[in-house]
Amino acid sequence: MRIVTRPDFDGVVCAAVLEEALALTEPTLWVEPNDMQQGKVEVRDGDAIANLPFDPRCSLWFDHHATNRVTVPFEGAFEVAPSAAGLVWSYYREGLTKDLTELIREADRIDSADLTRDEVEAPESNPYVLLSMTIFGRKGQDAPYWDRLVDLLRSRPIDEVMADPEVKRRCEAVVAQNKEYRRHLSSCTHVKEGVSITDFRGYEEAPEGNRFLVYAMFPDAVVSVKIRYVDRARKRVVLSVGHSIFNVGCNVHAGHLLSKFNGGGHFGAAACTFEASMADKYIPRIIGALQENKPHEH
Fold it and tell me: Residues 6 or more apart from 113 whose CB is under 8 A from it?
């Protein structure tokens, strides 16, 4: 049996709970949602998929993204909820000996962006928030680190997790990186009709950093759009949308909107990937719908 999940904090916590609950025979497979949607992942009978779109070949499925709802029968749990990890925990908690309540509570808060302004401006004030920022899905070579986090979060309290040399090194790097990211956001973002638009396509490699920082830096916007190339070949574009967690006022269901552009997600956060040749057609349509700010019919 194998876990198939996404390399973000919710996915890591999903894996931590599933490793407690299941008899696993293979290492965790870390994949991105778009790869699942495009059929690029070899899902097998016996796989437990979490925090990713459904695949009929799996044996268990857990997810919380509104746009991933299915009508076919399956084993596992689906619910529009703060985190997928919370659903996995609810499904298995009665049979587990370890109390992971605190970890699940933080996964719920982080994945649903239920954060304070202080936690956004200075994530080092909360260890879980800072730890979550060390997980970057774009770096497949980091799989051993994600596996290590799963083991650490299963077996140690958060203060010991944060004291681990590799975790500590990455957290220090994130703090420095966030300072640089603020500068990149400032130079590449403009606000128009309530939408902050960050375009990183001018970079050979798009900057990474605190995904919530844009909401604090551009308080007049009710929703953010971030655009970047998938890789240096510049053949595919990733566009992400996020409702401001401080200036609540976006009525558009981000997941339903981006499902029309090869993507999906939640009401307040979603992403899509498309060919760069479609950018001039897709991007104005997406931004226009957000500026119009009407509830999106799916």
Answer: 212, 242, 245, 268, 269
